[in-house]
UniProtKB/TrEMBL annotation:
Location(s), subcellular: Cell membrane
PROSITE patterns noted in UniProt: HAMP, HIS_KIN
Entry GO MF terms: ATP binding; phosphorelay response regulator activity; phosphorelay sensor kinase activity; protein kinase activator activity
Native organism: Lentibacillus cibarius
Nucleotide-binding is among the record's keywords: yes
The protein, known as: histidine kinase
Amino acid sequence: MFWRSVVGKLAITILLLVSFVLFILTILLLEFFEDYHVEQAEKDMMQTAQKVSRMIEQYEDHDLALENASLVKDPLSRVAVISGDGAFWTSESADSDLNDLNAKWLRNDEELKNVFAKGEKVKKQTLLPDTNIEALVVGKPINQNGAVFVYQSLDIVNQTKAETTKIILLAAGIAIILTTIFAFFLSTRITSPLIKMREAAIDLTRGEFNTKVPILTHDEIGELAMAFNRMGRQLKFHINALRQEKEQFSGIVTSMADGVITLNRNGDMLITNRPAEMFIENLYYENDLTNTKDNSKAPEPLNTLLQSVIQDEKEAIQEITTQGRTWVMIMTPLYDQSYIRGAVAVLRDMTEERRSDKLREDFIANVSHELRTPISMLQGYSEAIVDGVAESKEEKNELAQIIHDESMRMGRLVNELLDLARMEAGHNQLNKEMIDASAYTNRILKKFKGPAEENNVTLHLEKHLEEGTIAFDPDRMEQVFTNLIDNAIRHTGENGFVNVTIESTASNFYVSIEDNGAGIPEDDIPFVFERFYKADKSRTRNRKKKGTGLGLAIAKNIVEAHGGTINVKSRMNEGTTFEFNIPVE
């Protein structure tokens, strides 16, 4: 609204101030002119009375003096003369309402009789006897016990006062109008730069830091505009500096191999990078919680460690194991002066170090274990043939078949070790082709229909294909599918299921193989993709098919050779899910 704006407030203030001053001045002027006109009328009438009294005193002809008295008075007034001998005379007047006064009333009035009694000049405003006319009466003594009285109706003075009042009120009205125009002009002139500053401030809030206020004057408002423009430049400089710092900080956090989580006092996660998000996902999965974008609360044991840091006001270190991966967390409090506003947690995945240590310890033992059994069988059965224990041809053929199977097993083991070593050395050559994803997956699953039915396992395929053709090495990728699906079928009990989900988009090829088998122990999850890993300790294996423990390691190398990633999630007695993603070129 108008009166709420600076222009309105300033204009109204000036107008009210000037109006108040004019009001007081008008009242004082009216009082002054009212008294002035009365005094002036009294003065004129007193001069007339003096002239008349002088003529009466100086002229010997009394009638001539009275005749001249009629000539020197104002036509609208009357002159009354009382002689010392008691004679009384009044003049004519142009004012027909102004009646004659009688000598008795003049001699008996409380104030007018002082002219006779004390010989004083008298001035009085009074109502004429027997009328409602208010008149101004002056009196002056003459001779002995005589007096001259001049009286005039106050209507004459009031008319003069009314004309004067009109002039004063007109001047006050003109002054108010001019003041209003001046107030609006002045307030607009003053507030126009302020309005532009307000618009510029609104632009600054929208991030338009190049906005400038024009400098129209060199007074305080001009200096304010200069300061505002300087503030805008400084604000732009500092905002850019903060943005660069933020981008630099974001780049550092994003590129860190360690996980970073920033939390407030309430346990809300404010900032996380990709390694930290993977850690949080595993915690949610392990605690059977739903991980959504709206759910930003830190899960246990992260929240417990946060409360400990806030309470103790010092750094805390804890080792957390989730989904078979070992993380070392260092949580440091964040201060707002002396108040702890939250904490920052740095996570380091120590699984690889632990796994490397374990692999160095277990590799020789695993190789020795895998080779010892077939070598022992080769040695034993060959000695049986050499020593003649097997006499018949059928027995010799049976022993020879066992020796052949074990030698083939050793050959597969050696070949897979060589393939794995070649892949890890980066010598894996991929022969990529454009493959129809739907037909390709149908052919692979058709191959496993028989084994699934033999183990009484339901094999189900679900496809969501936005892109029909995918570029990859079909032979190598078939090794991945074969290893994962074969493992899922062999390690799933009767009446179980294996669900294979295929999804393809313009940028990604995703495969998920889920079973409801016995699951993998949490301690073994980090090692499932390592050489010679076998799940005999945790799963019921099909004794007719013995693996070498290298299939998942080979699968991982093939997926990574395609530029993808592979991971596993598992719970004991609930099942296992293998997932891998391959970017689409």
